[in-house]
Design a protein that fits this description.
globular, DUF2624, mainly alpha, single chain, DUF2624 domain-containing protein, about 90 residues
């Protein structure tokens, strides 16, 4: 399982706006292109572990400051989809 966590975390830390929009659409999460650009820029290089509840919560709070609380809730839904047990 650890390898999957590493792969998913790496993807989060290197995600592009286009990839973020693709995943958001796939998981029915509503974000705009501008929000995706802001979030991708923000996430790039953060080295966060979305499988750690505290790290994910902290990141979502930071995203709320950058992109607003509604966007943070939507992104958290996406993170939770990624972090589902395999």
């Amino acid at each position: 399982m650890k390898i999957f966590e590493t792969i998913i975390n790496h993807k989060i830390n290197t995600i592009t706006a286009e990839e973020l929009l693709k995943y958001a659409s796939q998981f029915d999460v509503k974000i705009t292109r501008l929000q995706a650009v802001k979030l991708a820029d923000y996430l790039r290089g953060k080295d966060v572990n979305i499988f750690d509840d505290q790290e994910r919560t902290s990141l979502v709070k930071q995203i709320a400051v950058v992109a607003g609380p509604q966007t943070a809730r939507e992104v958290n839904k996406l993170f939770l989809q990624f972090a589902k047990k395999q």
